[in-house]
């Protein structure tokens, strides 16, 4: 009997993603940051001083989740919200010096973890995986756009 695409692709992708998140959370715990917070901090390190809406899109987080993450990051002085001079109803999110320092410290550490995650996978297989993953993401984005339009 052939295995369903749901189990073959959907469940396997979700299961792997959850395992990677658990792994990252374990290694990030001493830094008092989660993998979700790290993804936002890393995004801000790459694109600082952006609106919460832009950050939501770049970090692929819904607004409610992002607000909670930003509250925690702001509480730990990793980010701050500043008034948006172009729109009084919104804030710009900026990474602090402390947040920049943490991001710079964590980046090579996280890269080392992912090097272990892909250990033993040859370059060609990894490129194929990334191409397939990109295609699946692109198809999913198209389906989501159809739903939202």
Automatic annotation (TrEMBL):
SUPFAM superfamilies: Winged helix' DNA-binding domain. Residues 6-138 form the HTH marR-type domain. InterPro entries: HTH_MarR-typ, Tscrpt_reg_MarR-type_CS, WH-like_DNA-bd_sf, WH_DNA-bd_sf. Pfam families: MarR. GO terms for molecular function: DNA binding; DNA-binding transcription factor activity. It comes from Heyndrickxia oleronia. The lineage of its organism: Bacteria, Bacillati, Bacillota, Bacilli, Bacillales. This is MarR family transcriptional regulator. Keywords: DNA-binding, Transcription, Transcription regulation.
